[in-house]
Each structure stands twice: as C-alpha cells, then as structure tokens.
Inverse folding.
C-alpha cells in the first residue's frame, strides 16, 4: 500500500516537470536549448550552463526542475497560441 501511495504522489511531479519542458520546447524534441529558453526568458549562457548539469547543451525536465529556483526568475509568462 505504501508503494502505491508513493507512486500516486510521484506521478504529478513528473507531469509538472514535463509541462515545464513543453512550455519552452518549440521543436518538440523533449529538451530545451538556450535559444528556446531565450524566447521567453532573459538568460545568459553562464546561467544556462549552470543548469545544464551534463553539459550536453540542452536541458532535460530533471535539469529544469533542479534549476527552477534561479533559471526562471527572468521569464515572462508563456503566451497561448
């Protein structure tokens, strides 16, 4: 029963992380690069690189979630298409 409760509690966290990526992922490759992030955020390359823990030039949903405290402070709200 405890495992079920943990799983049910964890699923919304994964969905929220995916929602963050989908807001910025314009080419729908399930990751966010610096140019995609700059469409809605005033962010410099140093800050982006700090969030990009594996150094591959893109942010995953996990990297975005971990960096949310400093990465999204300069972002404006996403406009609905």
């Amino acid at each position: 029963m405890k495992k079920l409760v943990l799983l049910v509690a964890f699923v919304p966290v994964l969905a929220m992380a995916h929602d963050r990526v989908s807001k910025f992922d314009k080419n729908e490759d399930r990751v966010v690069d610096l140019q995609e992030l700059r469409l809605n955020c005033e962010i410099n390359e140093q800050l982006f690189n700090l969030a990009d823990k594996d150094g591959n030039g893109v942010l995953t949903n996990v990297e975005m979630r971990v960096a949310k405290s400093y990465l999204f402070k300069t972002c404006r709200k996403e406009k609905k298409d």
Q: What stands out?
A: The chain has one domain: 2-71. DSSP finds five helices and two strands in the chain. Helices lie at 2-24, 34-38, 45-51, 61-66, 68-71.
